[in-house]
Model the fold of this input.
Amino acid sequence: MVNYSIQLDTTFSALSDPTRRAILSKLAKGDMPILELASPFDMSLPAVSKHIRVLEKAGLLIRKKQGRVHYCRLNAKPLRDAAKWLAFYQQFWDAKLDSLANFLEDSSK
Amino acid sequence: MVNYSIQLDTTFSALSDPTRRAILSKLAKGDMPILELASPFDMSLPAVSKHIRVLEKAGLLIRKKQGRVHYCRLNAKPLRDAAKWLAFYQQFWDAKLDSLANFLEDSSK
Done:
């Protein structure tokens, strides 16, 4: 349970940055060498590499070396637990807005 | 699109802490005065209040004052976009482990 919670911390934290989400989105199209993965971002290679390391540490990206080229692959499995955690709240985001309006109206009394 | 991305940053960041997730989980049971919400956590009231403010800023918690009591309510709507973002990756976490094993095997050659 503790490990599950720590993994959620790491997953959600990794997803809280737009560059890291964009990297995952690029990898969804297929495995990619690091240089190709980094090229569209308006930042230095070390800066992108730092984001790649965060994703790697979170288990969302797997790196392998083939000859002299480093390839990256998406590993979406940790996203499953994050999605499961969120799914519980679906009952609340589907709730009627009326309820929120009443809550806020009450507070102005 | 930019706003959508910023909201995702804020939502995922807010969810990357176990205390904040626990607060949302408590609020899923119903609206709650801040003091009652804070009581089970092994930290000071100012520390819990800081987490509550992060959730409030992320739009995941709404606060209202009723008389002298501050009530909190869950607002799950921002979680919907986070869940939508994650849902795209379902096709990958359902992918066979064989594919990953092959990828890793290749890299050891």
User: Anything to note?
Assistant: The beta strands of chain A are 32-33, 61-66, 69-74. The first strand of chain A starts at residue 32 and ends at 33.
